[in-house]
Amino acid sequence: MFDNKYNLTQKQSLFLAKQLWDENVYCGMRMENRAVTFPQTKTILNGVNVPEVQLDDIQAILNMRDAWKYLLNTLEAPITLEYICKLNEFIARNEALEWGVLRTGNVGISGTEYVPPIPNAEQVQNELNEILNSNVSATEKALDVFAWGTRGQFFWDGNKRTSLTIANKILVSNGAGILTIKDKYMNDFNTILLDYYDTGKSEKLKEYLYSNAIHGIDFQ
């Protein structure tokens, strides 16, 4: 249903990822409703201090930076629960109760009554394997991983950012583009995401992301 929009070579895919990774870091900040602009995010990523940005927001930006560096250096590594935990270790460092490990207590999600169950490592790995081994495009696997990880809330914090990053590992390593939600789509995305939390039905979310958030290189 969700065919690959892009079929890039490894060189093209890496070029795209390096061109858009700062936008993806900013996307992660907007998903968490952090009060930073794209210029501020880019300035911080360039190593320049922005006094008006809160220290915890700077920490979150630098955490996403480090997660992306790790991703780009490990594109050939298999996606396992251990790998996803490592990404969360970067992303939620000094933000969460614990980071890089599955949560062991209940959490709530603002705006919905849905309460995700406490994760079981074996079950999470089995669900991940089912997605990765499914007979669908790399793009659909990425969308499925994003939806699964976001609703699963496997970690104390950074679940959307971790899911976004692992989805992009799938896309970039397969030359299928990059998943980034731009500002003009963020409000609708949040509305659709809340509906997904309530219903558990991911098709509308996947359709929206497929139509509006998969980016690549268009050649003449």
User: What's the number of extended β-strand segments?
Assistant: 2
Low-confidence stretches: none
What is the CA–CA distance across the termini? Answer: 25 Å
How many H/I helices?
9
Sum up the overall morphology in one term: globular
The level-1 CATH class: Mainly Alpha
Total number of domains: 1
CATH topology: the name is Fic-like fold
Order of helices and strands: HHHHHHHEHHE
Question: How much is the radius of gyration in Å?
Answer: 16 Å
What summary fits the major beta sheet?
2 strands, antiparallel
CATH architecture designation? Orthogonal Bundle
By CATH's scheme, which homologous superfamily applies? Answer: Fido-like domain
Strand content: under 5%
The strand line-up of the biggest sheet is 1-2
Helical fraction: 55-70%
What is the arithmetic mean of pLDDT?
Answer: 95
**Structural class of the helices, strands and pairings?**
mainly alpha
Question: How would you describe the overall organization of this protein?
Answer:
The mean pLDDT is 95. The chain contains nine helices and two strands. The chain has a single domain (10-215), classed as Fido-like domain (Fic-like fold, Orthogonal Bundle). It is an all-alpha fold and 220 residues long. The radius of gyration is 16 Å and the shape is globular. Helix 3 (55-73) packs parallel to helix 7, helix 6 (138-152) packs antiparallel against helix 7 and helix 8 (183-199) runs antiparallel to helix 9. A two-stranded antiparallel sheet has the order 1-2.
